[in-house]
Amino acid sequence: MSGDTITHVITPTAETADAKRQTPFSRSRAARELGLKRSEFDLAVHLGHIRTLPDEGGGGRRVGRAEIERLRAQEGFPEALRRRVEAVGTRDGAALMEVTAARFTRLARLGLVTPVKFYLNRYRAVVWLYLADELLEFAADPKSAALLNRPLPEALRSQLDTGLDLRARNWRGRQLGFLLRQAGDPWERAGAVASMLDQVQVSEIVRDPYERAYLNRFRPQPSAHGAPGTPAAHLTERIATAQDPDEIEWLRADLARAVDEARTHRPAPRPARRRTDRYPAAHEHPAEHRHPLVQHRHPAHHRLPPTPERPERPQQPERSQRCEPAKRCERSRRLLGRFFRRDP
């Protein structure tokens, strides 16, 4: 290379370094920065322990660097944060509350303890998980001593005998609260409520197809538990959808109110109307705009009636009808005679 080559050296400026420090972290990067598993991080966001920011590029929510620094400055980090998001199953939860697993399951079915998440095991059985801190708090409450150490009251036993199970309903209520906290727009709040109802219920409330399509853009999808169309996916959808009649009626009323607020805030977008009157049809042209030399033909059923000045022209018969049968026979004989004529 010659010595005339010019090399440009780009040095980082203070503005570039400051912009880099203000760039928020992705969710996976934030989980690594906080020393949490991805499931623990998602649960911490769900519970409101970690504040997130909407991504301007449309790539989901992110975590600001200031939020990471705030969490790191807390006492006992990261063990204290990890304890707040510790979730346990039925066996470990019963051990924390010092009761049997059967007693713990009955308390959960009655809605006295609320699950925070669930998953499906390899047998497609639903495994509910509970916050360890909430279970310890429930066991330490003096009002819960009778429920833990004594036989359940007759009213509660009768409810269990009828098949009462409020675990899925309480989880949906907790999930809806999380979605509403994350929503920053009236349409997002309406979409959060719509996610708890099936499409038939939503169609009955939101009859406008354009509003319904716009609402589905803000409708969060449930966590995937299996490929779409599989039994696991159907079971997950059933858990995430309201089933009780009173729950459905409450959500329907809440959805109607949320859609009214969203419609007032910002109407749903609609396709632009097409200009159909730009090139009107020929029969719609006014007579004064027609060229005087252009003659417009009328169809047969629109023929003008005859007048004394213009008598009606008789219709010409068909060519096959012009010759009489006798004349046609005579002409045929002449042709045959010429064909078979022989010279003497």
Structure notes:
There is one protein chain. The chain has 3 domains: 20-84, Multidrug-efflux Transporter Regulator, Chain: A, Domain 2 (Orthogonal Bundle); 87-165; 169-265, no CATH class. 50% of the residues lie in helices and 5% in strands. It contains 18 helices and 5 strands. The strands form 2 sheets. It has a 3-stranded antiparallel sheet. The protein has a two-stranded antiparallel sheet with strand order 1-2. Helix 12 (186-194) packs across helix 14. The termini are far apart.
Short description:
By secondary structure, this protein is mostly helical. It folds into three domains: 20-84, Orthogonal Bundle (Multidrug-efflux Transporter Regulator, Chain: A, Domain 2), CATH 1.10.1660; 87-165; 169-265, no CATH class.
Write the layout of secondary structure elements.
Elements: H1 14-22, H2 27-34, H3 38-47, E1 53-54, E2 61-62, H4 65-72, H5 79-84, E3 87-88, H6 90-97, H7 101-109, E4 117-120, E5 126-131, H8 132-140, H9 145-149, H10 154-161, H11 167-182, H12 186-194, H13 199-205, H14 209-217, H15 231-240, H16 245-265, H17 319-322, H18 325-340
Antiparallel strand pairs: 1-2, 3-5, 4-5
